[in-house]
Design a protein that fits this description.
The chain is mostly helical and 184 residues long. The protein is 86% helix and 0% strand. It has one domain.
């Protein structure tokens, strides 16, 4: 049995399409684990901010340190399993630059109130998710747009319960987004 050039090209194209879907599925699996982990940490940070505002700074430092360490650990386990690296030294460097830019604005150039900070950081991170989604997949764009819109709504209408609103919207949104991505 032999195939002509056109059939061979079609077969190779099909194989490439399947390989792309498998890589995307593996990346989504790792990303979903990271989103769920970050969602739990972020929700905890907002709950501490709501009920122990004098400890909020310590809580958020703990959230970021635990999230970064957890991201490396999850990435290492998933890489060993699937050979798809989701969080490496370049991602860490990008994260540091991204956070440094946000800190430049929040600590140096702008003087945000605690409520404004609670709205700035999630929308700032969702900007990165949305941009990444343009290359990675539409799930990231949907997560970014949803969390950003709900953050703005809560900023305007949630009153003194904004941090709890954000625990639900930002933390819960990341968790739901992560679970949603697992089905893809």
């Amino acid at each position: 049995m032999s195939i002509d050039r056109k059939q061979a090209a079609e077969a190779l194209s099909d194989i490439e399409a399947i390989a792309h879907r498998v890589r995307q599925s593996q990346f989504y699996r790792t990303s979903s684990l990271l989103l769920v982990m970050w969602g739990v940490l972020v929700a905890a940070g907002y709950v501490v901010s709501q009920f122990l505002p004098h400890r909020a700074g310590y809580a958020w430092v703990t959230v970021y340190v635990a999230g970064i360490v957890g991201s490396f650990v999850l990435s290492a386990f998933e890489y060993a399993r699937s050979r798809v690296r989701a969080f490496d030294s370049r991602m860490f460097a990008a994260f540091v630059l991204f956070v440094a830019f946000g800190l430049l604005w929040t600590l140096g150039m702008a003087h945000f109130t605690p409520r404004q900070l609670s709205a700035f950081w999630p929308t700032y991170f969702m900007l990165a998710y949305g941009i990444a989604g343009l290359w990675i997949g539409p799930a990231f764009v949907a997560i970014a747009l949803s969390i950003s819109a709900l953050t703005f709504a809560g900023y305007v209408w949630s009153g003194p319960w904004f941090d709890l609103w954000m625990a639900l919207v930002d933390g819960g949104g990341l968790i739901l987004g992560g679970l949603w991505m697992r089905r893809d």
